[in-house]
């Protein structure tokens, strides 16, 4: 098992390098550079050119890449020209908010998906199943940003049950109990909105896994042993059906990134997604580049996580 | 002259271990295999799972990479050069697969399935192609209207006949049949076996018949090779193998064939006991330290056995 | 006379296709005695496995009619809790595919212990483990302590089948149902497994239903044989009569289509046509009629019954009387 994990880890390294080159080249290929935005009639173009030379903007791309990546590894991702502060600091504040939101969403996703998937799979083609599959079709069809807006409007503005923006009530002392409660309160509605939509894939997947496992021959063996239906389900069907779900959990991260970009913007939740959208709007390229790189790395880590989980829970991979 | 001659064939699969997948050894799937088949004959390759019989067949047709050795088809070595260079010879060798359910593409009509090899090797107009496909279907006793049907509309035996029609489309000289009837019911099995014999006569085909079922091998084959763990243990005419087996493994295999006569049960039981005792006692004489067979030695003009050097 | 262990009367098992029910097992009656091997032979689609599943109550969506008496008690409509007391304790089942019949995520030891736990909850975990290892030893697994901790994918096909047998016999059942127990195995392994089943029969004095398509296996193992075609038993007899004096056209055709091990025939007998699918079964008359068109229509019964042609030897339909093989075949 350790061999698999370590080998898998080594595979990840070139993936990340490739990703960073790609992100860098894409950023480069965008029109203009850091100095184009400073067009000011009072600045002599020759001085700008000298500045470019000094900043290394005329170097071949691989030298520029090397400069960028060595700095990035040390935590220097450049300056945001909008906020006039280092990108690293800017993201650092918001990273944690997004992580909290993602964790909450992931937990809610499974809290919804597992019971619904089990009911739907166990009692397939009954009214319970039809009700649940009906919901999943709704989830597949409803765009997240519209559903998010709807939730915000109903539970935020109309019913006033939840706050409609921010990540915490202003004026609370960091680290206090009230602060933590407020944080949780603020992320509940966005997380719920995202989870209700994101979960339908998992519900469907679990349902079909259970229906599939039900027909496997070892289930007959279990019944022939004299095991009761509940034991057959808990001991054999469920364990075997949850395994692929657990293994896919890492890939959920990719989905969460996409979701959080919309949701954070809709709920004005100060996370990376919101920063991403607003930075694109005003072409704050150093922030966008850094975020794309981070999102990419998160996806790669998610895939790694999936493989690691699979190699731990599945004996067919663990013991070869 | 032999139409197919396999000389010292080896197919090794590398074992890779450790973090960096270093090549630390080989699985010797096929090791020192020699065989030759005369035109128009049926050669049976027998063995249990893991014996290397299927790998041998697949290596001959080019589906498995040959590690060393030669495969002479009418004098041309197929082991040299890639699949491309021997393209014209490759059309003379076709394969029938074990599972008639998974070896036919479910999304294609019978027409396309049977015409596939024709399209690869010949340029025919649609009319000519249809004519050829219809001829082939007639040869395998399928109705002309089957041409527009899909594989799932046929029974197992019919599907295997579609597979055979595809295999004989290019008028091959040699057919490698890998367990062609083991997925079929007995009555259907009989149908396909009869049919394979008929077209053998009609088209002067040579068969390499791979099977684990000695009853079928005995029914079909003129010459038989027995494999165990990648090596040959015995080779001979059907009569040599069934009436005068020399290697203990062959004896054990033959003793294990179920007998249809229940009155001989006791007799068989005793016979098997004695074969088992002989096998256990003589195991060290017939296999080396790794449990592999020794090189083949001929014991008569038609019969060779893997016997230890000192024997 | 041995006592009757299992008695099936007029068993019909039907499946719903569309709006209608179709009988995979159609009015089957048979009995199994203690210490007897009854073989059920048939091709795919004959209903032989469906019959076995009915006895074990393993069908989840089927309509079962008729009676199955196990030691005198009708078990057809037994509530699940009572059925579960029988399954795994009184009746054991060996499945065809040794890989898929074991849970891939559980070690062998746990899979054997499960059946012990279900029927003998008083055993301590130590006793259970000892018993499981003992069972592995009994079915001829060379290193039982080691195998106990392994997962199914780590074992060879023959070893897995031994594990399945160990599970089936764990509680020394009186009735053992073996559904194609050796079909997925090599001949030498098949022989070992058949030897094992024979030995177990003597050890635990069980009645065994052996389901197979292989007449060779039948001839080696069975005391009595029932031949099934299209959901019905067409012939039932002791093994000697069945092999040497088969009467039903289907049985005779089957026997003639095996490549004989002693003489070399040029051509094997072929049964015309194909086994009809569940949906296309003729609902009236002799089901084999379509496949022996050279036999006169009037030779068949309208409603084919079982006829006793010799003591204990029954044949369905009167068409057996004038049956001959066609010359041109």
Which labels suit this protein?
heterotrimer, A: 320 residues, mainly alpha, two-stranded antiparallel ribbon, 12 helices, 2 strands, globular, B: 311 residues, alpha/beta, 8-stranded mixed sheet, 4-stranded antiparallel sheet, 26% strand, transport (chain C), ABC_Ni/Peptide_Import (chain C)
CATH topology of chain C: Rossmann fold
For this entry, what is the oligomeric state of its chains? heterotrimer
Average pLDDT number of chain C: 89
Low-confidence segments of chain C, given as residue ranges, are none
Which residues of chain B sit in consecutive blocks of at least 5 with pLDDT less than 50?
A: none
Percent range for β-strand residues of chain B? 25-35%
Largest sheet of chain C: 8 strands, mixed
Protein name (chain B): ABC transporter ATP-binding protein
Family (chain B): Belongs to the ABC transporter superfamily.
Domain ABC transporter (chain B): 4-254
GO biological process, one term (chain B): transmembrane transport
Protein described:
The complex is a heterotrimer of chains A (320), B (311) and C (329). In chain A, 77% of the residues lie in helices and 1% in strands. Chain A is built from 12 helices and 2 strands. Chain A has helices spanning 2-29, 45-55, 61-73, 87-122, 127-141, 144-158, 177-214, 217-224, 229-266, 272-281, 285-313, 315-318, and strands at residues 79-80, 85-86. A two-stranded antiparallel ribbon of chain A has the order 1-2. In chain A, helix 4 crosses helix 7. The model of chain A has no long low-confidence stretch (mean pLDDT 86). With 311 residues, chain B is of the alpha/beta class. Chain B has helices at residues 53-61, 87-90, 110-121, 126-139, 156-168, 186-203, 214-220, 238-243, 248-255, 265-286, and strands at 2-17, 22-38, 42-46, 68-73, 76-77, 93-96, 174-178, 206-211, 223-228, 231-237, 296-298, 304-306. In chain B, the strands form 2 sheets. An 8-stranded mixed β-sheet of chain B has the order 6-7-8-3-9-10-12-11, with helices on both faces. In chain B, 42% of the residues are buried. Chain C is an alpha/beta fold and 329 residues long. Chain C contains 10 helices and 12 strands. Chain C has helices at residues 48-56, 80-86, 108-119, 125-138, 144-148, 157-169, 187-204, 215-221, 239-244, 249-257, and strands at 4-17, 20-33, 37-41, 63-70, 73-74, 91-94, 175-179, 207-212, 224-229, 232-238, 306-310, 313-316. In chain C, the strands form 2 sheets. Chain C has an 8-stranded mixed β-sheet, sandwiched between helices. A 4-stranded antiparallel β-sheet of chain C has the order 2-1-4-5. In chain C, helix 3 packs across helix 4 (125-138), helix 4 (125-138) packs across helix 6 and helix 6 (157-169) packs parallel to helix 7. Chain C is globular, with a radius of gyration of 21 Å. The mean pLDDT of chain C is 89. Chain B: Residues 4-254 form the ABC transporter domain. Chain B: This is ABC transporter ATP-binding protein. Chain B: One of its GO terms (molecular function) is ATP hydrolysis activity.
